Amino acid sequence: MRECSINRVTKETYIDLALNLDGKGKFNGSTGIGFFDHMLSAFSVHSGFDLDLKMTGDLQVDCHHSVEDVGIVLGQAFAKILEDKSAIARFGSFYVPMDESLAFCALDISGRSFLAFDCTFTNPSVGEFDCCMTKEFFQAFAYNAGITLHIKLLAGDNDHHKIEGIFKAVAHALKIAVAPNDGGILSSKGVL
């Protein structure tokens, strides 16, 4: 099984996260931010990854530290599990229509961290989740996972639908990229 657990403790957050890439698509736990929990649940369901999370954060300040730190820890878990990239498909891309919105993700699990995020939101927040934290989450995730991640929002009016489409598109692209590959490292260099 491709799984690991990561613990991160700072003055702002306490996080215990367990990730299983060969799971059944279940999310268990809470960040204390209802909409973000909804996104993590959608991410688990659509990727097929099991995600167990125990955490507390300084939500009396705002959601920033909690959301960003979950991205950091989730990225660290991916990097640890996928340290050997010779057994994965490496690339993944996916479109997700979410009612009136359309989200696209393309990614490369290469060890090279990069985020291109072309998405705009109308409102400052959805529930207690600041819309600007969508980019912060994926930036923290990409940089800690060593993933080149491109996310583009092609259509949409409702911020809930737009953000949910983004999380689902990333989940499906990751599911494709981590699929087993018996052909060795997918690189003309022979290494990643």
Query: How many individual domains?
Result: 1
Shape: globular
Helix content: 25-40%
Structural class: alpha+beta
- Trace the largest sheet across and list its strands: 1-2-4-3
Instruction: Estimate the strand proportion.
Output: 25-35%
CA-atom Rg in angstroms? 16 Å
Number of strands: 10
| Mean pLDDT rating | 95
Supply the CATH superfamily name. Answer: Imidazole glycerol phosphate dehydratase, domain 1
**CATH class bucket:** Alpha Beta
Order of helices and strands: EEEHEHEEEEEHEH
Q: How many helix segments? A: 4
Alpha-carbon distance between the termini? 22 Å
Low-confidence stretches: none
| Main pleated-sheet profile | 4 strands, mixed
CATH-derived topology: Ribosomal Protein S5, domain 2
Please provide a written account of the structure:
33% of the residues lie in helices and 32% in strands. It contains 4 helices and 10 strands. It has helices at 34-47, 64-81, 133-145, 159-177, and strands at 3-9, 13-20, 27-30, 50-57, 91-98, 101-109, 114-118, 125-126, 129-130, 147-155. Strands 1-2-4-3 form a 4-stranded mixed sheet, covered by helices on one side. The radius of gyration is 16 Å and the shape is globular. The model has no long low-confidence stretch (mean pLDDT 95). It is found in: Cytoplasm. Its EC number is 4.2.1.19. It catalyses: D-erythro-1-(imidazol-4-yl)glycerol 3-phosphate = 3-(imidazol-4-yl)-2-oxopropyl phosphate + H2O.
Characterize this entry briefly:
The chain is built from four helices and ten strands; from the N terminus they run βββαβαβββββαβα. It is of the alpha+beta class. Strands 1-2-4-3 form a four-stranded mixed beta sheet, covered by helices on one side. The chain has a four-stranded mixed beta sheet with strand order 5-6-10-7, covered by helices on one side.
